[in-house]
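hey so u asked for the seq, here:
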Amino acid sequence: MAVTQDAVLSALRAVQDPELLQDVVSLGMVKALTIDGSRVSFLLELTTPACPLKAQIEAAATEAVKRVPGVTEVAIRMGANVRRGGSAVATGQVPGAAPLIPQVKNTIAVASGKGGVGKTTVAVNLAVALAKTGAQVGLMDGDIYGPNVPLMMGITDLPTAEGDRIVPPQNHGVKVISMTFFTKGDDAVIWRGPMLHKAILQFLGQVAWGELDYLVIDLPPGTGDVQLSLSQAIPLTGAVIVTTPQEVSLMDVRKAIKMFQKVEVPLLGLVENMSGYTCTSCGHQEPIFGQDGGRRLAETLALPFLGAVPIGPSMARCGDTGRPCVIAEPQSPQAQALSSIAGWLAAQISLQHFRKPPQTVGARV
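ran it, structure tokens below
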């Protein structure tokens, strides 16, 4: 029996993307379908290279096509086409002005509302984990007063100039901009709000980011000038909230969530950092900062819970040496958790793109 394209596509309509809940044919994921006798080959183009269910979708597609009468061989090439995910409305620009970052598909604000919860460590590892999957990624250090991103990324080179544009240095496949590059040694930045606003606009509009799938933006603690300037300057795809399990952290996280809702920035999910410690000598597990506080908050607010990251010495060690743990110690529990979180974050962004109209998750605060 001759194998036809209609028969193959009909079989693939039974294969759903588990997150988007639509079949891969309707989603336009099946590309370059060719049939050579009993051999079928095609490109399966996912919505992100970081898809956490990539292997599951590939296996389901392979099995579905193998059931078509006459097919003896199936060859699938896995690819990705990241969609533009911005949905919030930028209100701070002059009407009719050109967008600040037209080549950036998705902007992800990483926030906490509170210092000391490991937000920058999470932001750095998420950016690098996304880049490891093949995505084009940038990382903007939005903490003007206390920038730490270049240290954690192992970047010592300074930006260069290309005309009136700033060319950011990069490492681990991620382009980086930070106030660290524009200050000397231990000099403190002593600025009022208008200067912070100007710096954020320059980091966005004057940096040669190029084509990016994801721009991760590490925000400072609190709910102040930088957060407001960012939400007004560009259409943020959404925000990731980082917390520890303890109530003193969750108290400030609730305020950060409320702030993003007021400025109409979608909430992509919550990450619980420092979720527990496992002794390397005896294996005893100790919830140093409490247990499941972040997960419970996410459930209460109907937020996606992206995952929990256990505390461990590798996080500090990797950060101080400029080699994020997803690169330096990929088999560690911390790296495994952060890589998983990066995948589920990318999945949430894809989900947001397919929502009609886009919705802000978690209205109950």
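Confidence is low (pLDDT under 50) at residues 87-92, 357-365. The chain has two domains: 5-80, 107-354.
lmk if thats what u needed
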